[in-house]
Every structure is written in structure tokens, then in C-alpha cells.
Amino acid sequence: MGLTALVAAAWMGLFPGVSAAGEVAGKSAASRGDVANGKALYEKKCAVCHGAQGRGDGPAEFVLFPKPRDLTKGTFKIRSTPTIPTDQDLFRTISQGMPGTSMPSWAPLTEQERWDLVAFVKSLSTAFDGAAAAKAVSIPKALPRSARLLAIGKQFYADAECLACHGEKGRGDGPSAPTLKDEWGSPIVPYDFTISGRMKGGSSAADIYRALTTGIGGTPMPSYADSLSEEQRWALAYYVLSLARAPRRQPVAQETGTLTARAVRDRLTDDPTARIWRQARLQAVSLRTLWLRPKTIDTVRVAALHNGEEIAFLLEWDDPVMSQSVLRVEDFRDAAAIQFPLQPAHLHAPGHPEPSYVMGEKVGPVNIWHWKADWQADLARFRDIQDRDPGMAVDAYPFAPEIEPGAPGHERVRVAGHDPTYLTGWGAGNLFSLPTRRSAVENLNAIGVGTITSQPAEAQVIRGRGVWAAGKWRVVMVRALKTGKERDAQLTPGQPIPIAFAVWDGDQGDRNGRKAVSVWQNLQIEAAPGPAGKSRTRTTPNRPAKAAAR
């Protein structure tokens, strides 16, 4: 067997209280944490995935793969011991998150709050009851990397049957890979060693040495402490690292950070190619893919401008395949979303007034702006099932006023030519059933997973546009800072507000809750520049002059 770890961004050495090697500074025991405070934090930040009792059955569980850990079992993947994790192990995981999963870094919490969470997590499992403090395995001084060690590592990669799971080239495609399951019977994916810097327990040689020594709890990955010598484990660690491809050069993404909406005097446009965007600075924001797959979108680059009246966001991400059609059941669209809390909240202020970034909650609803690539295409010309099957034939609809009953031959009747009384979705105002598309962006609200609700047609006040070129989407969404509507987030210059992002890759099967998401970022809206002046930058009208008809 080889190392079983999964794909996502690594955040080593970026958080207070955690060093680059993963050692924990400051407090050394969860006994200094407060269980009651930890419980309150857990309910607000963790229960949506791990469940109220810690059994891994939270409301979001069904959209996540890998599945959230059942904390009551006392089995943890990342630990520095052969058995239960140390307090420092738990603190490190909470601080850094879990690469390859939806578990984010909770470093924005104070150090004390993270120790409180450690104390509460331990209270969920009897594995910690009366147990003596586990002792971390000793990591000897690293042997210098050399050609000889790499050769030894390559040999033991085969001899120790690492390739049975991880494959000969380390791509996670070994003959045993399709059959692997974790301790609870769920499918588990061997890590692809060719992807650099994204192993759950850390991506240094010392981190890999430790995993080879302790094994990875709950997975098929065993401990090699008794079967491989220290030299052989160092050799195997170096060989595993040698399988990685060179990482792409791109801006360092922040999991939680501050975005600035710059104040300008120009009119704002929804054209992603407009010159006005030269005044804005793209900032990279980390995304976590909720449903693991080989190809992920792990970064969205964001810029924002406002002129005191409107605010515009530019989202840019890499996507080698443009997916705009949903006419076949096997096709899914590319999409992007921006999320705000409905009520103003200072991110991570005392008491954490911000709602859950996982689609909000009952006591903290959210407002979502959802751009869809297929709606974008419909603005030019609405595409329907006849575009997929142009030779299709249907029975006559006698209630369509454009049809002449009894006339010979056949006619092509637009949906707009029918009576909405007999097309109930259209008659009810369902945006998906309207015969015209007036915007590529849908204005939504949610109070948790599975509660997404569209606002009425008259409240669809967000305009947007996307352009795909050279393997990259650039999408702009524009809305008035203030709408006066209680279901819209009201944005105020000078007042910070949390903001989060999501991206769907249709070519990879993303849809609904299967997507890549960010945690809350802090949006700073610069002071208003005064009334918007005239500009050479052209503004795309809020609605097309002539809406595309079905």
C-alpha cells in the first residue's frame, strides 16, 4: 500500500500558531480549552458537515466526498502517533484544514477558540476518556536527498506494493484503486503523487516519513514502522516527492483574506473585456472542491469596482472546456456565484455574527448572485430541445394562437407563441420556464443546504456577462449598491461585509451542490467617490433591447 491522501490546496506555515513543519506553538494541551465554548463554536462552524453529535451526518454531508469524519469513533487520519492523535495534531488539523476535502482552515478563529474546539472534539469520543496523552513518534534527522536514496525509494515503492494502489507512475491508478474502501465502507481514492504540495498531512519529506511511520487512520494505508528501516522510509519519502510535476506558477491564493472594491468615477459595465478593469487588481481566492475529482478548479481570481451607485465584480478562473449547453441529460453548464449575508456582519467579530458560509442558516440567510453559462448563451438566441434534435415532431398544440387549426403541413411554433395558462411553469413565473431570458444572472436566497430559492422576476436586478477565451472564463456581475429590497444584501461603502464564491465546471459534471467553493472573505468597499461621471467606458444595458425568444 502507499500513502492514501486526497487532492486540495496545502496551507503549511501560513497560520498563526502553526509552523511550516506543522508544529504547534503556544498552548500544548486541550485541557486549557473550554468545552462549552468549543461546543458553541462547533455548532456554528462544524455541525453543518460533521453533524450535531459529531457523527459525520450534517445537513451538507450528502454533497461531500470524501465524507465528513465521524468524530465519535476516535479514528483520525492525520496524527503523529500510532494510535489516537495528540492535542497538537487536532489543533494543527483545525488550523490548516484538510487538503482534498471540504474541511477548510479555521485559522481565522483565535488561537484560544481553536483550543476550545480541540477540547470539544475530544469530548465527542470515548477514545479519549481516561487515555494517557499519546506520544508522538520520533522523526529522526532527515537524511540528505541523493540519487542513491531515490533508487532505494523506487525499489521499495514496488516491493512495499505502493504501486498496487497509487500506480506505477504514482497517479493513483493502481490495480487495487477501484476497490479501495475506508474503515466505514465508503470508497476512497489513492492520492495522485504527480500533484505537488497537496497531501493531507503535509507535503514535506518529514511529513511523508511520519505518515509512513504512523499510517493513515481509517484508510487502507498501513504503518511501515516495523517493515521498513529509517533509511528506507526516508528513501521512499524522497521518491514519492520526485513523482510530482512542477507546480504551475500562479498567484498565491488566500483561503480567508480581504478583497477591496475600489472606488471609481466611471460608469460600470458588465463587459469583462472593458478597459475599466485595468483599474482593478485581481486577487486570488482559494476554492475547495466539494466532490473530489482528478481535475479541480482550486482558484478564482476576483476584482471589484464601485462608483457609489453600483458595484461590479469580475471573476476569472481557468477552465479548458467551455460548457454552455444543458440540452442533453448528460450535459452540465459552467457557472459562478457570489454570496453575501443578508444582514450586515463583521467577519469573525466576537461571537461570530456571520452566517455559515455553507449556504447560510435559518438565523442567517444569504443572498446569492448566480451566473450561468447557458443563460448567457440564451441572451443571444434561446436554445431549446429543437436545437439538439432539429428533425423532431410533436403533436399540435390547439391553444397556441400562432397555429392555424386544420392547416396542412407543419409549423415551428416558438414557446412565446403559446398561452402561458397551459405552460404552468411560465404561467407561475418560474425563471427557468420563461420564454425570454433577460439576464444571465439569477438573484437567489438560501437559509442552508437544499433551501435555494429564486426571487420573483421583478426582483431579478443583477446584470452580468461572461466571456470564455483561451481556456479561461471572465465573468462580470453588476448590481446597485442599494436596492431597498429586504431579500437583497445592501452594500455600503466604508462598511465591510463577508463575501464568498463558488464555481461549477460543467465538463467535470458539476451541478447543484457539486461545485468548488470558498469560505467567507472580507469585502472592503472603499469610500464612495461621488456621483458617477461620464466615461468612455460603455455600459451594457440592464436588459437587451430585444430579449431572446424561445
Q: Nutshell version of this structure?
A:
The chain has 550 residues and is of the alpha+beta class.
Give the tags:
11 helices; Immunoglobulin-like; 3 domains; alpha+beta; Cytochrome Bc1 Complex, Chain D, domain 2; 16% strand; 16 strands; 550 residues; disordered N terminus
Descriptive overview:
With 550 residues, this protein is an alpha+beta fold. It has three domains: 30-128, Cytochrome Bc1 Complex, Chain D, domain 2, CATH 1.10.760; 147-242, Cytochrome Bc1 Complex, Chain D, domain 2 (Orthogonal Bundle), CATH 1.10.760; 258-382 and 435-549, Immunoglobulin-like (Sandwich), CATH 2.60.40. Helices cover 17% and strands 16% of the residues. It is built from eleven helices and 16 strands. It has helices spanning 35-45, 47-50, 87-96, 111-123, 147-159, 162-166, 205-214, 230-242, 373-380, 385-388, 424-427; strands at 258-263, 283-286, 288-289, 299-306, 310-318, 335-341, 366-372, 436-437, 441-446, 453-454, 463-469, 472-480, 497-504, 516-517, 521-525, 548-549. The strands form two sheets. Strands 1, 2, 3, 4, 5, 6, 7, 9, 10, 11, 12, 13, 14 and 15 form a 14-stranded mixed sheet that branches. Strands 8-16 form a two-stranded antiparallel ribbon. Helix 1 crosses helix 4, helix 3 (87-96) crosses helix 4 (111-123) and helix 7 (205-214) packs across helix 8 (230-242). The termini are far apart. Residues 1-23 and 533-550 have low confidence and may be disordered.
